[in-house]
């Protein structure tokens, strides 16, 4: 074998062995995606950087809290926040004051050890839901590393402005529902893979 080819073959063999070692196998490392799906390597919601929102949270939200996301829908908005071991949302639909448009406040605690549902990645989650009149409803899954919100208010279209570590998709059906995933990029990606884009 020519000296140049021998060097190339040797480098290719070293590179191939290095890649095998990085893939997990006997090294004790978890296969790609396995550790992350359980929450390892993710930034907990309580450690994500908060954002400032005009008007802040309602006065009855007592104690230290951090607003993580704000979605503006024309005249309405939805705010997602964390407080201690809880996740919460405050939604003010467009047309507030109409009989069918009622503000929503929803809170769910993170599950304790061995509790909650693991139907989505990076869980477990506790859930809560509420109807804000005949035209508006929301559900909330709260976990240590992510919160997943589904929100529907007749008359609200696609959010015009989205701020914070959040991904928003619209699901089909009538009325359309916004699926809002709050968390670090890796957590949002894993949840989106499972739920699809609508």
UniProtKB/TrEMBL annotation:
Keywords: Signal. It comes from Streptomyces yangpuensis. Residues 1-23 form the signal peptide. It comes from the Bacteria. This is Lipoprotein.
């Amino acid at each position: 074998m020519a000296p140049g080819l021998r060097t190339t073959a040797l480098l290719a063999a070293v590179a191939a062995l290095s890649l095998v070692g990085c893939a997990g196998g006997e090294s004790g490392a978890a296969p790609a995606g396995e550790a992350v799906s359980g929450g390892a390597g993710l930034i907990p919601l309580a450690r994500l950087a908060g954002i400032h929102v005009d008007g802040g949270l309602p006065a009855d939200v007592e104690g230290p809290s951090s607003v993580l996301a704000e979605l503006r829908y024309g005249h309405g908005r939805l705010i997602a926040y964390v407080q201690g071991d809880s996740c919460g949302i405050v939604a003010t639909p467009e047309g507030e004051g109409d009989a069918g448009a009622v503000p929503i406040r929803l809170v769910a605690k993170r599950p304790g050890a061995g509790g909650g549902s693991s139907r989505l990645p990076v869980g477990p989650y506790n859930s809560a839901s509420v109807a804000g009149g005949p035209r508006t409803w929301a559900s909330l899954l709260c976990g240590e590393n992510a919160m997943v919100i589904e929100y529907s208010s007749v008359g609200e279209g696609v959010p015009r402005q989205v701020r914070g570590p959040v991904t928003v998709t619209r699901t089909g059906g009538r009325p359309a529902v916004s699926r809002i995933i709050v968390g670090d990029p890796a957590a949002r990606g894993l949840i989106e893979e499972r739920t699809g884009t609508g």
